[in-house]
Amino acid sequence: MSRLSEVDCHRALGLFQAGLRISEVSLRMNLKKTTIFRDRQRLHETDTVSDRPRSGRPRCTTQRQGRNLVRNHMNNRFLSASASSRHTREINNQRISANTVRRRYSTSGLRARRPYIGPILTQRHRHQRTLWAQEHAAWDRIQWRSVVFSDELQFCIDRADGHVRVCIRSGERYQANCVREPDRWGGASLMMCCCTGSPKGAYTLLAGACLDL
Q: Where is this region: Disordered (predicted)?
């Protein structure tokens, strides 16, 4: 049953103060008699029908355990919450849940997201890419026609790609320990290659299958 709003509390107490009996107020507003008694007592003691502040459910882990959980996920970004919960015990020596682990590291700004899959770039790689972009920023369409752009995509045949999550903060998507490097030779696969932008403006589509057995 949903909690009684303050408006309904004032209405019930107003009917009672107007001369109706508690049983009559209970039937008219479809309330329990004990609810009206409690509201009347709360108004008498605190001069308000608002709920009293509550301490809430006590934490099942200590502050030190919470810091250790965050530290473990910072050291191993691909550590799952369920795996972390299996090695942590509550204050009463019970195993904590995976949701408890997620709540602990979410307070530090960590979130479970799908990782960026690609090569890990060093500081030198980033610098060279920035220089290349700056050198070609002013190129016109005629200059770009002499460049061929190509890309490839691999479809795994004998295994699932999986949905791995990584704990990251804002701005850490491309950090080295948050990137999952792709396994390009991990079993049978189908490779699709495509390139565009030849000197004549033609488009070429190449499709090939590669089986890594």
A: 42-61
3-state secondary structure of 121: coil
* Residue among 180, 147, 141, 137 at smallest CA distance from 162: 180
pLDDT tens per residue, range 164-192? 788 888 888 888 888 877 666 666 777 78
Query: Can you say how many angstroms the Cα of residue 211 is from the centroid of all Cα atoms in its chain?
Result: 36
Does the pTM surpass 0.85? The reply is no
The whole-angstrom separation of Cα 96 and Cα 88 is 6
Domain chopping of the chain, boundaries: 6-46, 63-108, 123-210
Cα(50)–Cα(98) distance, integer angstroms: 35
pLDDT score recorded for residue 211 = 36
Q: How far apart are CA 78 and CA 166, in angstroms?
A: 5
Q: What's the rounded Cα separation, in Å, for the pair 116 and 176?
A: 10
How buried is residue 105: exposed, middle or buried, by Cβ count under 10 Å (0-12/13-18/19+)?
buried
CATH of the domain spanning 6-46, picked from 1.10.10, 1.20.1530, 1.25.40, 2.40.30: 1.10.10
- The per-residue pLDDT for range 55-95, each reduced to its tens digit, is 777 788 888 888 888 998 999 888 888 888 888 877 667 78
Interstrand relation of 149-156 and 189-196 (parallel, antiparallel or unpaired):
antiparallel
Please report how many Cα atoms fall inside a 13 Å half-sphere around the Cα of residue 168, on the Cβ side: 18
Over the stretch 64-75, which tens digit does the pLDDT of each residue have?
Answer: 888 888 998 999
